[in-house]
Structure prediction request, 170 residues.
Amino acid sequence: MLQVDLRELARGPVQTRAELAGDDPLFEGLEVVLADPVRVAGRLQSAGEGRFYWRGSLSTQVAGVCRRCLVPVALPVAADIDALFSQDPDALEDPNSYPLARDATEIDLRPAVREELLLAVPQWLVCRDDCRGLCPRCGKDLNAGPCGCPAAPADGRWRSLAQLKDKLRD
Ligand SMILES: [Zn+2]
Ligand SMILES: [Zn+2]
Prediction:
């Protein structure tokens, strides 16, 4: 439950716990596929007049292909959440703060979940840091060994020196 009634909050801190499907519209526009539901847990409490502080965490798993060798990759993602919901416009300069209407009757925590998830997911996936990728010529997966394509051309300066020597020999 990620919408909390302010009357409930007036009685004391509220434990928040929710599981959002990976294809929930909240996550639209995300560059990666969420292979697991997004699990959210936290504690929301009043932090003075018109201010509410939510401290929690989220976790899920993203899926995609390795950017270098194209094998399927799954990667766990987790993030802490520190969010301030405030009716005071001056408090909104803080990047972790979210506006709350003066006549609000509830706090919707979902924008903070989306924001934190967007920051936590990697821009691209790699199967491992030292993945060698695919040969640009034949497409073979170089993690499985060399492909037999000729090595990259030698440094141009040395090559022209060799050509010069050949010419002198002629
Ligand atoms: Zn790879
Ligand atoms: Zn090759």
Notes: The two ends are 84 Å apart (CA to CA). The pocket of zinc ion (ligand 2) is lined by residues 135, 137-138, 140, 147, 149 (CB under 6 Å). The first helix runs from residue 6 to 10.
